[in-house]
Amino acid sequence: GAQAAEYADVLSATPVTTTVSVPRRVCRDEQQVMQPAPSGVGAVIGAIAGGVLGHQIGGGFGQAAATGLGAVAGSVIGNQVEANTAPATEVPVRRCQTVNRVESRVVGYEVMYDYAGQRYSTRMARDPGKRMAIDVRPAESGADSLPVPTDSGASPAANASAWQAVPAAPQTVYYTQAPAYVMAPPTVYLSPFVGFGLGYYGGYYGGYRGHGRWH
Fold it and tell me: Mean pLDDT, to the nearest integer, of 18-41?
């Protein structure tokens, strides 16, 4: 447990950033020319006209066959004529695509602080401000006590997993006003986590003093 509750002066708090990919859906409305489908009236009229013409041309036993062929040919021709003469219309069409935007996010802070004339460093989830509360904990092997920020967790190992980047909600962008889309949250890929470090200038490092080395 903590031996004493103290405060340390924060010398610096440097943001630690990582890169995330944020998907967003971009949509635009367009007018597309559509040719209406034939109603079938042209095919019926063509079949009747073709059948009559075939009946007039055919004779004897071939009259029935000529009538049938004329009806089929007239149906095809009539359907095509109707399709070619029907006026085209414009209909609104929405086209969408998903694009990824790369953003830089702050995922923590490298904090340098002073306690009892010695400098220490640690990583924290938030900017602690000008002063921060610390726990003075007994060190191993009879060494001097270590001032650990109370906001850092019980140990360096616990602090290492105390924070994670939170991805922003997906965004939908429209060129024109349109109903909102419902999208699933994006998968965010984070850079590898950088481990926790604790040390100070002229202070404790590996059980020795006066080396002036950061750890």
Answer: 81
Distance (Å, whole) CA 91 – CA 94 = 10
Average pLDDT, the chain: 65
Task: Give residues with Cβ within 8 angstroms of 18, minimum separation 6.
Answer: 104, 105, 107, 165, 190, 191
On the CB side of 201, how many CA atoms lie within 13 Å of its CA?
6
| Distance in angstroms (rounded) separating the CA atoms of residues 14 and 133 | 18
Measured from the Cβ of residue 34, the count of other Cβ atoms closer than 10 Å reads 11
User: What are the tokens at 21?
Assistant: 């990919």
When pLDDT is cut at 50, 70 and 90, the band that residue 32 belongs to is: confident
Exposure string (b/e) for 140-167, b if CB count within 10 Å is 16 or more? eeeeebbbbbebbbeeeeebeeebebeb
Question: 199 to each of 63, 111, 123, 129, 143, how far by Cα in Å?
Answer: 107, 11, 11, 20, 14
In the block, which residue shows the tokens 């414009």? 90
Q: What angle do CA 142, 143, 148 make, to 5 degrees?
A: 120
Tell me the pLDDT band of 33, cut-offs 50, 70 and 90: confident
Q: What are the tokens at 74?
A: 């007239």
Distance between CA 54 and CA 52 in Å, rounded? 5
144 contact partners, CB below 8 Å, separation of at least 6: 204
The identity of residue 62, as a single letter, is: G
